[in-house]
Fold Transposase.
Amino acid sequence: MGEAKRKLEKRKEMLLSCAGVQTMAGKVQVRWETESAATPMGQLAYFIQFLHLTGLWSRWLAGCPLTYGSPNAPSIADVLGTWMLSILSGHRRYSHVATIRGDGVNPGLLEMSKVVSADALRKGLLRIPEAAGTTWLDGHLDESTAALLDAAWILDTDTTVKVLYGHQEGAVVAYNPKKLSFIEANRKRGKEITGYEYAVLVTNTSYEILSLGQLYRDRADAENAFDELKNQWGWGGYTTHDLHRCQLAARAVALIYNWWSLFIRLANPEARREAITSRPWLMTSVGRKTEHAGQTTVTLTGLHAHFAQARAALPRVSALLQGWVAETAEQLPDPSVWHLVCDHLKRILAGIDGPPTHRLLGNYAHGVG
């Protein structure tokens, strides 16, 4: 591009950067910034701290079987960081990555050099060997749940179907339970038909049916995780022609869902919040990053009506995590912080105390001698 053309483009950008807009309140000046250290997910810094101090993020990166041969290829942190930010945003397609490429705060907090494009993410996941990728993600899925399974949790799940279409690997012409249809010649006659819906309940308790019904209504620990994963997360999305990347995406969404759900229970132990309410409350706010004298500051501007409650909850989680790190830094290996998180959740949610050593360190984290 010649010098004259560059000046013309710069002049156009300056004109666009501060243009008058007529509104009901009068004329206002709208200024555009092509590059700014800002993000719509400002409160995500606290979740990033959770991943960092528990070691979940570093272990996920270290175990990733993705390799590149070119020095110009993106780093593993760039690929996995883009993937995680996209999943946390509730995306369902690789093309949705375009909506987070202008994030000027969170990629830096994850030590990413950039948010990669949708094509780079697709190609990167294709380079992960199928067997190694499955083993890698299954191991982290096990880690995200194993330490919690000695507590009595309520399991509420329904069967789910992932429909394959067209030229996708594994697609066949078959019955699709999601697309029920029939031809009825006499529509009025169909309305006269009466019938029943049957539900089968398998249980090892000896309660009466009315008591079981009440227990079912009170199951509230998790109101069907599959429903939330399908409708509020990208489970079943990130579709490609090959089945391998579809399976990787399903596992990755489940893993990020586990991490986020446990983080939310630390912030809000009184009740479980699905992503449709937890994201706007504990993730979404305008964040601006400034740097001065070697100090990085992220300034948050709340948009949520309950921003004050988030302002109280998230620093409390941060203090809890830092207290555990301070007490375990010279005594136990890094995974112990994650175990303390799990012990804390079991204690406050299920009334189960952890091992004596973990319980003592948990007391220190709470400021109890």
Summary: The beta strands are 19-23, 26-30, 38-39, 285-292, 295-302. The chain has one domain: 36-151+174-365.
